Amino acid sequence: MRLVVQADDYEAAVRFYRDVLGLPEQAAYSGADDAQVVILDAGRATLEIANPAQKRMIDDVEVGRQVAPSIRVAFEVDDTAATTDRLVAAGAEPVAPPTTTPWHSVNARLDAPAGLHITVFQELRTLDERVDLDGFGTDAGR
């Protein structure tokens, strides 16, 4: 899956996501009329589909109030607190500080360049450990 985002301040968005967040550049293209695009490797992609009640619950846990638009981009990181500090220093607006969630991750919310509302998260348990938690499931049995 590739998520395509229009950034009015292209250079600032590239600096933020590539240079500060650390997403490696896969390719970059330019064309007529100053057209530019950079493709950044964000690792494995998943599509998380939540009903309105789940979206409200996630906002309540991570932020304490409803803030996320219908699309939020989440990046897994090694250290949520350090990454949040770097992203804020690079221009992201903090929405909620690193918070340990009931699903055993440390999540922080930010409003980031290119108009994205993002979560940076650090898993505290492996997938194998999370499978046994209440409310966690997979379709491995299908």
From TrEMBL:
<dbReference type="InterPro" id="IPR029068">
    <property type="entry name" value="Glyas_Bleomycin-R_OHBP_Dase"/>
</dbReference>
<dbReference type="InterPro" id="IPR004360">
    <property type="entry name" value="Glyas_Fos-R_dOase_dom"/>
</dbReference>
<dbReference type="Pfam" id="PF00903">
    <property type="entry name" value="Glyoxalase"/>
</dbReference>
<dbReference type="InterPro" id="IPR037523">
    <property type="entry name" value="VOC_core"/>
</dbReference>
<feature type="domain" description="VOC">
    <location>
        <begin position="1"/>
        <end position="123"/>
    </location>
</feature>
<protein>
    <submittedName>
        <fullName>VOC family protein</fullName>
    </submittedName>
</protein>
